[in-house]
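Table S2 (continued). Query chain:
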Amino acid sequence: MEDGVSAIQMSFGTIYPHPGNYNCCGVIGNADFANAHTYPQAAPSMLGQYNGTLDWTHRAALIPTPGKPVAHTEFGWTTPASPHYGAVSLRVQAEYTLEFIFDAWRHGDPIYVYYGLYDDMSGTWGLFDADNRPRPVALALQSLSQLLSDPASDARSFAPGRLNISFAHLPAGKTSFSGGRFLVMQKADGTFWVEIQNEVIRNNFMGDNSDVPVPEVKLNVNFGSAMRSVTEYDPVSAGTKPVATWRNLSDVSLSLPARPILLEVVHPSARATKELR
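Corresponding output:
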């Protein structure tokens, strides 16, 4: 980094499932971020080598840029579902995209750029179609951003606390980053936000890429002591509207779908907060 400007490594393109061009040049210095183009065939952390496509491109990007965080400067799925690589339904596109963001974060990869904003000559990859109409993936990303944004002046400087949380019946995954996974975040006002997902393959990738039905999983979430309130959100299906709210309980039971959901957990010690609902 020089003069506050970070440098991302050059792109070696999408080379899957072997390192290919990433091995061409040895270690290339002076980049602040490694660079990956990641286009999964199905769920981001399933199929392929290691722990799925995202994990593989993460590892490949580090070959010329070891020890640096990875920027996924391209990732995405195309629509509609058809017998082509990564062509899924509108709903699955939205679900996989949110999973990608949280899976990337679990890898320590802080940058992810969806390809693309609009449909173009490359096809129907856009968050918006050629007539400027938002696809469900665009609305899901907007809802996720609104729910997790923190406008507090000390959002980048406050000392985060700790949430005592445990799960019963969180489903096992076929890879280290799939199945039942969770991420605990906190805002400056003291509220915790817990992302929970059950990542499984939801497109018939060996055939026409049609949706594969996945039953919801009954899940219990325990906080060890009573929380002031717990509110469930489903950015894909319900936007920023609450799905359910519990008050003054130490544990909640819910149905976990095969897509990321969020729990807003208001700890008794949290500052007074304006409820989103």
